[in-house]
Specification:
- The complex is a heterotrimer of chains A (about 300), B (about 325) and C (about 400).
- Chain A has helices at about 10-40, 45-65, 70-90, 100-120, 150-170, 170-180, 185-190, 195-215, 230-240, 245-265, 275-285; strands spanning about 140, 145.
- Chain A has about 300 residues and is mostly helical.
- A two-stranded antiparallel ribbon of chain A has the order 1-2.
- The radius of gyration of chain A is 19 Å and the shape is globular.
- Chain A starts with 8 loop residues before the first helix and ends in a 10-residue tail after the last helix.
- Chain B is an all-alpha fold and about 325 residues long.
- A two-stranded antiparallel ribbon of chain B has the order 1-2.
- Chain B starts with about 20 loop residues before the first helix and ends with a helix.
- Chain C has about 400 residues and is an alpha/beta fold.
- A five-stranded parallel sheet of chain C has the order 2-1-3-4-5, sandwiched between helices.
- Classes of the chains: A mainly alpha (about 300), B mainly alpha (about 325), C alpha/beta (about 400).
- At the A-B interface, helix 4, helix 9 and helix 11 of A face helix 5, helix 10 and helix 12 of B.
């Protein structure tokens, strides 16, 4: 049969699939960042911390109230999204007239606070969160043993990403949103409450991060630092994709997950930096990013 | 979203004239006298830490406060220089002055490479790009054989300055560090007040206009980026000699965040702000070390408060009260 | 006038008391991780252990006043070195104990040597502490990577698990662990089929586990630590690695990790430790007292090591009647060690404390009677074989 880079095809398929799973998280997170950036024009540095909060709230629901994973999928994004709304109203909304970098600094500070508080309360050793019974076990795909839960992560992520893309690109609400991105004053003049739209958008972006956190909780240990390093990788993903389009953020997320997965087989030592290397190349060749519009 | 915000980081305090106002001279002199006397009261190692971070924050301030470029990856320069200096002093047996120089050279080269790529993007993208590159440097430091991975480079000899001044005693070393840092601060001051510094401020305040005036904006940006990286490297190399250690903490992104915090708290675009910011943050870390992650929380709170209520920073507010640029 | 007399009187009485029994004041610094991933296996528990040692020794009754201070080094060498320096320079600390995380331990060892104080390590793993980087001021009490690699490696090969594959954290520590274990496996007649080096710290290990699975190895050696090991074991169970018949060998894993993982996930894992609370009546009694003060959590081998090392130090203070570093170190190395937790042992000239080590297998949920009942004892490795031979370490203190 065919062998690619000296890897037998079975192993290759397996690794591609695993890459796709990691890509699911990149896609969900960069999508949230892109949605927020599109309207608020800030980079949400606390995105990683909010992803971590998602995992923690899911854990708390299970531990303290016995609410299971499926309800957590619904409740957690709402709860964490609501904290996002509060943050936007109380803090971020005061910064719109200033340089965008202040938004970055503010959310960076928020990330420190959130992570610090959770570290104080729960330590950093990580807390266990079991895979829901319905999704335990795995399926033998012939070329690999795929845990059912990981398969679910891919499906859930694709569905959410597609739904978000659809809502923004194809619905009336999405049209308002895109219009407000281009010219908020004009949209306001049509009688649409732009500030409220901005607030809800931030809440939605944060909710996406929280959802990613819930999805991650059963796979990785629930840990206050789980978002801190991840967010930097996602930043690189965002720079590579460019924040011009929603679809761009999604595709880059999945694509880079696969690239990283392949690196883990070919040259595992380099898998932590491969995305940053790609970022450097993209900056040289196409500074606005793969899907970015030149400004 | 198509243009960069016009407001930049301008504060009234930052509108510095060419030449040296007399009260700056007075402050510098007073500061020097204070610092010369300080080791008889305070623990010299602590003072040296403050000095190194004051220089580091001033280096960042040169880029952020006067160049209008927010780098979230300055730990890359601080840390790589500290690794190179530590390696040179320990493995190659360099005298401390050569070890530091080599570290500084390394950070300058690294600054040139990262800077050339990073200035291709602006604003928030610039911040993210520098952060991502710094993370790359972090992974390099973690895996490269000469950095000692998690152990870092330890037991770096302080050595003999110029071959005959033994730096083993904290007091002696303190005055050497003071000389290095103070010299560098004066140099940064000189850069800010040179015609080059004026062009920088013009670019910061209105990049399109600077371009239309015929300035090669990217060259200026790259130049100030490299300068800032170099001074950050000087701070890192000096720290390596003081603590006899180069470790991953120096290259980690939290270090980049801390130095931004020092600059922000002290006052971006002021001359003395970074010194004040560094002193406050280092003191806080030192005395609250027993409170674990609360230090992180406190730093976060300072960030949030500074951004929301206190954008001029401590020195910026002071300058407004005194109606004099500080 | 009156005031002066009182001072004089009390000074005389102090002097008298001093001659009656050697009045010595020592200050012990417990430096470890109090907020990070090793907080459970060292942390406040080590302070409790040190305090118990002082009480059990009856230091006050023997005229030795002991003050214990503690600090969080956050597992960072720079923080550890700053604190150690300040403790020795300013706060008058005589002895630093515990210090998990090898990088931090090296930093403390260097400064201790420079300031000529004493450092008794319990928490750190690197065998270099008593090897290439050994110091006349360091005692390494509880375990080291050599002992763990040998215990686990040779035992598993002896059981017929000869084909190995390593999942290694790609930094100095992980590579050393892989190298040490490879040597053991090959010496015992085993074979290493391959290794994959993962970035540190990692979160997703599925890719490496899949590579390990397709290698056809019988044992997957985990040459990583802390959260990486925990995540690897967790994901191995998720991908059905152990169910498919491959065994996992943890090369640096503690009872607190097993506690965090749960037996469902960790069962069957083979590991080496220096101490287990359920070894004998004495360890059980001590551990019960410890758990009462530590929120019910049983002691780890690191806690036990802190207890035993402080005890041995205090004995030396009593016998030398002072706290002169050279005399204390000489006394500690000359006197055989004896305590309820590690039994009889000794400190070698390179600073290595030697005692028996134990090979354990993690119980299945059905075998366990409740929390902390986690291990089945597979074998006892006698002290003479448990640690690296004196001559092999390359320590400059060892006379050739």
């Amino acid at each position: 049969m065919f062998e690619l880079l000296g890897i037998p095809p079975q192993a290759l398929f397996g690794q591609l699939l695993l890459g796709l799973i990691n890509g699911s998280f990149y896609a969900l997170l960069s999508l949230g960042l892109a949605v927020i950036f599109g309207l608020l024009n800030i980079i949400n540095f606390s995105h990683g911390a909010q992803y971590m909060m998602g995992a923690f709230v899911a854990w708390m629901l299970l531990t303290y109230t016995g609410i299971n994973y499926w309800w957590a999928l619904l409740i957690v994004p709402i709860v964490v999204g609501a904290t996002g709304i509060v943050i936007e109203r109380v803090m971020i909304s005061r910064l719109y007239h200033l340089d965008h970098l202040y938004g970055l600094l503010l959310t960076f500070g928020l990330a420190l606070i959130i992570q610090g508080l959770f570290r104080n309360q729960y330590g950093v050793s990580g807390l266990p969160y079991s895979i829901p019974a319905e999704l335990s076990g795995g399926t033998n795909l012939g070329f690999m043993f795929l845990p059912n839960y990981r398969g679910w992560v891919i499906i859930a992520s694709v569905v959410v990403c597609f739904a978000t893309w659809f809502a923004i690109e194809k619905t009336r609400l999405g049209a308002y949103l895109r219009a407000a991105t281009e010219n908020p004053t004009l949209v306001g003049a049509f009688g649409i409450n732009v500030p409220r739209m901005i607030t809800l958008t931030y809440g939605f972006g944060v909710a996406l991060a929280a959802l990613a956190g819930v999805l991650a909780a059963p796979i990785y240990s629930v840990n206050p630092n789980m978002g801190a390093d991840l967010i930097i990788v996602v930043f690189a993903v965002v720079v590579i994709g460019g924040m011009g389009s929603i679809l761009g953020a999604i595709l880059t997320g999945f694509g880079l997950g696969i690239v990283e997965g392949l690196t883990r087989v070919v040259y595992p030592e380099g898998s932590a930096v491969v995305i940053f290397v790609i970022m450097a190349i993209v900056l040289l060749v196409k500074p606005a990013g793969l899907f970015g519009r030149t400004q | 979203m198509t243009t960069q915000s016009e407001s930049g980081y301008r504060s009234e305090a930052a509108a510095l004239p060419i030449g040296t106002p007399r009260h700056h001279l007075v402050i510098f002199t007073g500061l020097l006298v204070l610092l010369l006397l300080a080791p008889s009261v305070l623990y010299p190692v602590f003072l040296m830490k403050v000095l190194c971070f004051a220089l580091f924050a001033s280096a960042l301030n040169l880029l952020l406060g006067f160049g209008g470029l927010l780098s979230f990856g300055h730990a890359a320069f601080f840390g790589s220089s500290s690794y190179v200096a530590a390696h040179a002093a320990k493995v190659w047996g360099f005298n401390p002055e050569f070890a530091i120089l080599l570290g500084v050279a390394a950070s300058a080269v690294l600054g040139l490479v990262i800077g050339a790529l990073a200035i291709r993007r602006q604003g928030i993208y610039f911040a993210m790009v520098t952060l991502a590159f710094a993370q790359m440097v972090f992974f390099f430091a973690l895996q490269a054989p000469f950095t000692g991975g998690e152990d870092g480079i330890q037991a770096v000899p302080r050595g003999k300055l110029f071959g005959f001044i033994d730096l083993a005693a904290d007091r002696t070393l303190y005055f050497v560090v003071l000389a290095i840092v103070f010299g560098a601060l004066l140099l940064i001051y000189r850069i800010i007040h040179s015609p080059f510094g004026q062009v920088l401020k013009a670019i910061r305040d209105n990049e399109p206009r600077s371009i239309s005036l015929g300035y090669k904006v990217n060259r200026y940006k790259l130049a100030v980026f490299v300068m800032s990286a170099t001074f950050a490297g000087l701070a890192g190399a000096t720290k390596a000699v003081v603590f006899q250690l180069a470790s991953l903490t120096d290259v980690y992104w939290t270090m980049s965040g801390e130095v931004v915090l020092m600059t922000l708290l002290g006052g971006m675009g002021t001359v003395f702000g970074p010194l004040v910011g560094a002193a406050v943050i280092v003191t806080m870390q030192n005395y609250f070390a027993g409170f674990g992650a609360w230090v992180t929380v406190l730093q976060g709170v300072i960030f949030v408060v500074s951004v929301l209520l206190f954008r001029e920073g401590i020195v910026g507010v002071l300058a407004r009260w005194l109606k004099k640029p500080l | 006038m009156n005031f002066k007399t009182i001072i004089l009187a009390s000074a005389t009485s102090l002097l008298l008391a001093g001659t009656a029994m050697a009045q010595t004041a020592v200050k012990i610094g417990v430096l470890n991780d109090r907020s990070g991933i090793y907080a459970d296996l060292s942390g406040e528990g080590s302070v409790i252990a040190a305090r118990m040692a002082v009480e059990d020794f009856d230091a006050a009754g023997k005229g030795i006043t002991v003050e214990i201070v503690s600090a969080d080094h956050q597992n960072k060498p720079d923080v550890a070195s700053t604190i150690a320096r300040q403790w020795y320079d300013q706060d008058g600390v005589d002895l630093i104990v515990d210090v998990p995380t090898s990088s931090a331990a090296f930093a403390v060892a260097d400064i201790t040597r420079e300031k000529n104080k004493i450092f008794m390590n319990s928490g750190a793993g690197s065998a270099d502490l008593t090897g290439a980087k050994c110091s006349p001021n360091t005692v390494h009490w509880t375990y080291d990577t050599w002992a763990l690699a040998h215990g686990t490696g040779s035992a598993m090969v002896a059981e017929g698990n000869t084909k190995w594959f390593f999942i290694t954290a790609d930094y100095a520590f992980g590579q050393a662990l892989e190298k040490d274990t490879t040597a053991v496996v090959e010496a015992a007649g085993g074979e290493v089929l391959g290794a994959v080096r993962h970035p540190f710290p990692g979160t997703d290990f599925s890719s490496y586990l899949l590579q390990a699975q397709s290698s056809g190895a019988q044992v997957i050696g985990l040459a990583n630590a802390g959260g990486d090991t925990v995540n690897t074991i967790k994901q191995a169970s998720e991908f059905g690695i152990t169910q498919a018949g491959q065994a996992l060998a943890g090369l640096l894993i503690f009872i607190t990790d097993i506690h965090a993982l749960g037996l469902e996930t960790a069962q069957g894992l083979v590991l080496t430790e220096a101490f287990y609370w359920d070894l004998n009546d004495e360890t059980r009694a001590w551990s019960e007292r410890f758990a009462a003060e530590n929120g019910g959590a049983k002691p780890t081998m690191v806690h036990a090591g802190v207890y035993a090392s402080v005890l041995h130090y205090l004995k030396a203070v009593e016998s030398t009647g002072g706290k002169e570093t050279e005399a204390l170190m000489a006394a500690m190395k000359a006197t055989p060690t004896s305590d309820p937790l590690f039994g009889e042992g000794m400190i070698r000239e390179d600073g290595r404390k030697v005692h028996d080590m134990y090979l354990f297998q993690v119980k299945s949920p059905a075998e366990s009677t409740g929390p902390w009942d986690y291990y089945n004892l597979l074998a006892t490795i006698p002290a003479a074989e448990a640690f690296r031979p004196l001559a092999d370490g390359g320590c400059a203190l060892v006379a050739n």
